[in-house]
Amino acid sequence: DNHDTPRTDENHLTITYFLSPAPVGTQVTVVQENVPAGPYAETMKRAWPYLLGTLRDWLETQSAAHREPKA
User: Fold this and answer.
1) Is the dihedral of CA 62, 65, 67, 70 positive or negative?
2) pLDDT of 5 above 90
3) Contact by Cβ (8 Å): 51, 42
4) Do 40 and 3 touch, CB atoms closer than 8 A?
5) How far apart are CA 60 and CA 14, in angstroms?
6) What residue spans of the chain are helical by DSSP H?
7) Which of 26, 36, 67, 70 has its CA 20 to 30 A from that of 45?
8) In whole angstroms, how far apart are CA 69 and each of 51, 62, 64, 66?
9) What are the pLDDT digits (tens) for 10-58?
């Protein structure tokens, strides 16, 4: 599925994640490039809070699992 856009090189978008230390935890910066204007861009804009929240929850679960003492 290509989100109702033709599957061409110019329709491929790039998403880059940058991680940097923050006073508490890690700052995540997401850069999207080549996102077409219009409904698709609006959908992506609304999706990011959910996607990043899911990533945060998974990372916190993994981090907690690694802190637990091994039996």
Assistant:
1) negative
2) no
3) no
4) yes
5) 26
6) 39-67
7) 26
8) 30, 13, 10, 8
9) 777 888 999 999 998 889 899 988 888 888 888 888 989 998 999 889 8
User: Is the C-alpha dihedral spanning 51, 54, 59, 62 positive or negative?
Assistant: negative
What radius of gyration, in Å, describes the C-alpha atoms of the chain? 17
Give the separation between CA 35 and CA 69, rounded to whole angstroms.
44
Cα 1 to Cα 19: distance, rounded to the nearest angstrom:
29
CB atoms within 10 A of CB 13: 14
Tokens of 14: 């790039």
Q: Which residues on adjacent β-strands are paired with residue 29? A: 18
* b (16+ CB within 10 A) / e for 46-56: eeeeeeeeeee
CA 13 – CA 64 distance, rounded (Å): 33
